[in-house]
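re: ur question from earlier - yeah i can do the single chain one, its not a big deal. heres the input i used so u can compare w yours
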Amino acid sequence: MTVSNYGVLKGIANNYKREGDHDTPHFQLDVIGEENRHYRCAINVMSSSAQSEVLYYADNKFNAKEITHLQELQNGYIPINEDKSNHSIALDYVRGKLFDSTKMLPLPHEVTGPDNDLNDFIETYMKKAMQEKATIYIYGSKFGPENKKDKVFGFEPTNGMHNIHMNQGNSGKWKKDNGAYHDGGILIQFEDYWVAIFLAFLSQSWCTDKRGNPNKFCSFNEPNKEYE
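and the output i got, formated as C-alpha cells:
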C-alpha cells in the first residue's frame, strides 16, 4: 500500500497558523487553489514516535530544471497516477537525487526565541511566499472535501493535504504508507528562483527497496540508495 490520493496541490499561500503543544502538532497552511477553493495543508513539525524531532532541509536555490513543467499545471490538486502517465512530477527522496539527505537536520518544533525551531523556519518561507504571492506546490495526499467547516481556518467545505513529508522507509504501524515516488514536500516558485523544503522522520530508513519498504540487507540510514 501507499499513502492514498497522492498528488500535488498548486496555488497561493493565503494564511497560516501554528498549532499548540499536543501529541502531533502541525504547521497549518491555507492555500487557495482553483476557483478560489481553499485547502488546509497540515505540515508535520513533530513525530508521534519516540524520536519526536523532524528532519528538515531547505534549498534556497533549488535546481528546478527537471520540474519546470510544473508551471504549466493549472491551479488546484493534481493526482499523480499509479499508471505513471504523469509520474515525472512525483517526488522521491531516495531515487530522485533531489538533495543530499545527509544535510537534513533534526529540529524541535517549538523553542523560545527567533529562528531556532521548525515552526520558525517554515513560517519565514510562508510569510515571504504570501508577501510576494509566489506560487506554491504542496506534495502529499489529499483529504476531503467534507461538508463541514474546516477546524482550523473555518472555510467550507473542509479540504486539504497531509503526509507532506517522506512517505517511505517506515516500519511498524506506518509501514502501510510506504511507496516509491510518493514522497511529500513543498516547492515555492518565486519570481527568479525556487525554494524546496523537504521533511522526514528520524524513524524512517533511507535504505529502501523498489516498493519503498526498509531493506534489511543494508545500513538503516544509508542515504540515497535504491535496492531491489
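The radius of gyration is 17 Å. not sure if urs matches, ping me
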